[in-house]
């Protein structure tokens, strides 16, 4: 019912038509699934400690990086072939790579488990490292079958799986926490959430039928035909993932579990709602930009329209941010008082990213993958530089987070400027051709 409301009301206020309805349906399910996890946080923070949340945060960060490689990026090509034969072959190829990557991650955990714990300074994670290959397997399968659903325009199904994942994960974390407690409850809940929806998506693919019809020659053909996806997109995507997860991993390495747990909650409370809105804006903006691409001069006003809209939406958050040190202990419990201070320091960075991130879609529309790679390398260099500086000066946790926050605000400005530069360059090129 709620998803139907999103489809009926929100889509009418965006661009109109099928594209906007699909975006609204997908965004509605994602938003509701994520909203459940955020709204349940006051319960979870009274069941679990900051140290427990730290284990989940580090596990999730490592998994986020590994899952970018889960299917070798071949899954991104699944919606593209005109005929179903090549698309089915891509699905089978991607699923095979997911299984192989899961086995490799399992081998890596077995051989390098102690080193991973030392690098992240997370001794509490050691008993649960075996969940990493399980997570890669589940996330990889979900990514592959989601792309098949995208090919079939089954956005309502994807939306329902997003909702079931949020509800399933939160319920499992609460129940497991009440029965046992400890980080295993949080991790088990996440694993359960990741697994929900895979069966639904896989049913629409008809795996057994595909296995009986796909031949090795068919798979070898798509390996070559779509080789540009693993060749060109793996490294940029991996760099992007590392850059996004570096603050969590660095905090754990330098300042331990409790600080990481405090920061993780602050990042979740602000980051999740804003990322939902930002992602939805990006979808709609890309659709509008794609329509306006033939008339490059329309992209400039669209860029500033997106910036103004995001700034307007960010105003209430800027007002609320200074109140976090007083609100967090009341909402989440006294043991999370420090998390409110981290939220006050970190929120400006999240808000800056919220304003800038939708503009990244212009690079996709203008096919400026070169600037995408440049941008992500720049992010990694800026964050890494701040972390090295913090390590050299042995900065206290709050000061270190403040430095990272300032660096991310700077990067958000550069992020938007890079997109604006691409638009201006495209307009200049078009002007040169007309002259």
Give a description of the structure:
The chain folds into 2 domains: 40-226, no CATH class; 228-429, no CATH class. The protein has helices at residues 2-13, 17-39, 41-47, 50-67, 84-120, 131-151, 155-179, 183-195, 198-205, 207-213, 216-225, 228-292, 299-320, 324-332, 337-356, 361-365, 369-393, 397-434. The protein has 435 residues and is an all-alpha fold. It starts with a helix and ends with a helix. α2 (17-39) crosses α12. 84% of the residues lie in helices and 0% in strands. It has 18 helices and no strands. It is globular.
Keywords:
435 residues, mainly alpha, 2 domains
Number of helices: 18
- How many individual β-strands? 0
Low-confidence stretches: 1-16
Structure classification = mainly alpha
- Give the SSE order as H and E letters: HHHHHHHHHHHHHHHHHH
Beta-strand residue fraction: under 5%
What is Rg? 22 Å
Tell me the count of domains: 2
Measured between the Cα atoms of the first and last residue, the distance is 55 Å
Shape: globular
